Amino acid sequence: MIPYSNAAMGEMFAHMAEIMVEHGLVEPQDDAEAFAGEVMKLLQSQGHVNDNGDVTLGRFILLPSHGPEVSLLLVSPLPADPYDDELRRKPSPIQFGRTASDQIVLPSRMMLTIIEELASNPVVPEELQVLFLNFSRCALPFPDIVLPPEVETVALPTEKHDIVEALMPGCILTVNLEMKA
């Protein structure tokens, strides 16, 4: 887990923007300010920017893909769930669960919440919205997502002086939403 800093966040967002260019979501530009404006315009079109002009935590955009396998680009830090499996608040530092081999565990309820949000995203094609909605309603039990231990995380400070571990923007999750009969 790397410490939070404006420089670290700037590097993370630059990496995320490069991925957006690679996938044709935004056009590269020589003017950095205009480019940043285009990235923010894309994020705003998907409802990921709050009233203060900040990108909301834990937001993904859908990368060009073909269902039932979809790739999601994390566009803002995704904080660890502050509650354990029994829904008790975790003590600070709040971290992701880990396997015995130090792999990061994203709880299935977190992934299902993300999929439900994508089902109501107005820029997601209708056939994918239906796929996301059906999956979120019918995919139980859904396994936890396990990420390699080398996936970088950042330590986010909170207003309550807690430290919360978060996945960094630029992380891509590919999920197979195929429903088995």
What attributes characterize this protein structure?
181 residues; 4-stranded mixed sheet; alpha+beta; globular
Distance between the termini: 40 Å
Radius of gyration: 17 Å
Q: Summarize the biggest pleated sheet.
A: 4 strands, mixed
Which parts are unreliable, with pLDDT below 50 for 5 consecutive residues or more?
none
Structural class: alpha+beta
Total of helices = 4
Mean pLDDT across all amino acids: 86
Q: What count of domains describes the coordinates?
A: 1
Oligomer: single chain
Strand order across the largest sheet: 1-8-9-4
Overall geometry: globular
Helix-strand sequence: EHHEEEEEHHEEEE
Helical fraction:
25-40%
Strand residue percentage: 15-25%
Q: Count the E strands.
A: 10
Describe the protein's topology.
Elements: E1 2-3, H1 6-22, H2 32-45, E2 60-62, E3 69-74, E4 78-79, E5 97-98, E6 104-106, H3 108-119, H4 126-138, E7 145-147, E8 153-157, E9 163-167, E10 172-176
Parallel strand pairs: 1-8
Antiparallel strand pairs: 2-3, 3-10, 4-9, 5-6, 6-7, 8-9
Helix pairs in contact: 3-4
